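step 3/5: co-fold with pantoate
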Amino acid sequence: MNILTTQSDMRAAMAALRAGANLTVGLVPTMGALHEGHASLVRRSVKENDVTVVSVFVNPTQFNDPTDLKNYPRTLEADCRLLEELGADYVFAPTPEDIYPEPDTRVFSFPPIDTVMEGPRRPGHFNGVCQIVSKLFDIVAPDRAYFGEKDFQQIAVIRAMVRHLRLSLEIVSCPIVREPSGLALSSRNTLLSPDEKATAVNISKTLFAAQDFAKAHTVAETHDYVVSTLNAIEGLEVEYFEIVDGTTLQSVRSWDDAPYVVGCITVYCGAKPIRLIDNICFKK
Ligand code: PAF
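step 4/5: write tokens
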């Protein structure tokens, strides 16, 4: 496995690899602190492509809270050990200075997909995600890129960007990986104390219960059930729970409003507090 730290080295490696060879390249963009969720993306890429590149870069432009950026876990050595075991071919771990030698002034905006849920609550977040992901696509030129469905809205925004820029790669979305308790895997889980983690399990537990509840209740009743159940638990505070059309991300009023319906949630957990996201499919 090769570990490269500059975009010029990464571009050169991809050019050499492609010279005269018709190889498919899979890219798994990450911010490191890798867990089984990332591992599932890497395994899938290794299976579906000749070459797998994993980027490990804590992208400053997608953080709207400097403390969040500072506290984001950074575990490059352990990440590389795991990626070697998983059969990744290249790790691309550049510095912010290498990726942004000058401020990235590009503005990405894909309303109404990025103006709901996370959009208004994390101003600039999706713009930053598009800035880095578009750069990674340009540097690696992958045939496929793999993203986890935990960040449900992120995938929709990236698909919109790919459409707008007319990029010819496939965006592969992969199912959420959960702990046996049901808690969706996230790099942020490492910031939870054992007690907070036990409390956080209620998020997925309530979402799974809501799937059953929804069979005999309206969208509004299901929404209220989830929010009131979670807010009644000490240490949890729902920021939003929205039941949306899984393609347009716009709220639905009735289960018949769309063929694909997903509930997306963000919850603050614990004293610090840690912001956790999750989602559940109601209809597909
Ligand atoms: O999902 C993430 O970890 C990040 O948003 C991504 C896609 C790697 C861009 O920094």
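step 5/5: annotate
The CA atoms of residues 101 and 263 lie 39 Å apart.
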